[in-house]
Amino acid sequence: MTRQVFCQHLKKDADGLDFQLYPGELGKRIFDNISKEAWAQWQQKQTMLINEHKLNMMDPTARAFLEKQMEDYLFEGIEPTIEGYVPPKA
């Protein structure tokens, strides 16, 4: 049986994540409120952001930047600005 959550990003009931993928309070919030589908969408955007900004994930500043983008995207519905990327129209 797949765990169901009300996904705050997609605004619908959907399959929840199998386990907490991100540490700390934010990770718990994501686990409780974000679906697999929304997390997969974020993963694609995260990869684009890392590549575009040439982020070094060992750098705390880069990690903080990415975490802010992730939180804004997943919980506020704010699309990250990615050069040359136009989100598909809903």
TrEMBL record:
InterPro entries: Fe_traffick_prot_YggX, Fe_traffick_prot_YggX_sf
Alphabetical keyword list: Iron
UniProt-listed Pfam families: Iron_traffic
Gene3D superfamilies, sorted: Fe(II) trafficking protein YggX
Domain of life: Bacteria
GO biological process, one term: cellular response to oxidative stress
Keyword Cell membrane: no
GO molecular function: iron ion binding
One annotated Gene Ontology cellular component of this protein: cytosol
Signal peptide: none
Iron in keyword set: yes
HAMAP family: Fe_traffic_YggX
NCBIfam families per UniProt: PRK05408.1
Function: Could be a mediator in iron transactions between iron acquisition and iron-requiring processes, such as synthesis and/or repair of Fe-S clusters in biosynthetic enzymes. Necessary to maintain high levels of aconitase under oxidative stress.
Family per similarity comment: Belongs to the Fe(2+)-trafficking protein family.
Name by which UniProt lists this protein: Probable Fe(2+)-trafficking protein
Originating organism: Alteromonas sediminis
